[in-house]
Amino acid sequence: MRQLTLDLGLAPLPTLEAFCADGNEAALAALRQWLQERPAAPLYLWGPSGCGKTHLLQAAAHALAEGGQRCGWLDPDTAAHPFDDGWSAVLLDDVQRLDAVRQAVAFNWLVNAQSPACGAPRPVLAAGDRPPADLPLREDLRSRLAWGPVQALQPLSEAACRAVLQRTAQARGFALPDDVLDYVLARFARDLGSLMALLQQLDDYALRTQRAITVPLVRAMLVEA
Fold it and tell me: pTM for the full model?
């Protein structure tokens, strides 16, 4: 019988403070300004997978929630539902993958956010993997996303990736030796999203097997996967 172990390592919350802005300082500053000023024009973030777009949107949602505010969240994997007048903001993630139904919902949300039936306009934050003009979306949605500021995000350097992984491991309560980092970075996708998922998997496996995180442990985990 496999022994179950309590996961006492807590993943760090997706906050603005936890975001490594190395090379993406302008995008982070634009998001802080968006949270402070709540402009009518949407803020659109774009960049390749793993550059931190979802983290920033989740961080914005977390900041709003800390202030007691609710927001609408839509991505390709969430259920589509009508606009809620109680929302303080609208967040759209991975917009390039929205299907026809969710594109219609996203457009409806944007219209209601920018011209609400009651109250002031709600700020909109959206993210995708390419500039608005290149998005494979219906034209009216694409043009609304391009209406406001657009900020590009760049993938983190290897040094920044190492720092983020080590900081995340420390927050979860374990050390990530340099030789394990070398092994992982030499053999796996370098985008931060994939690396963070691998770190979660490695932490879970180490807890379950009651072993320290070493290169042999990584190899054993991959054999079982």
Answer: 0.80
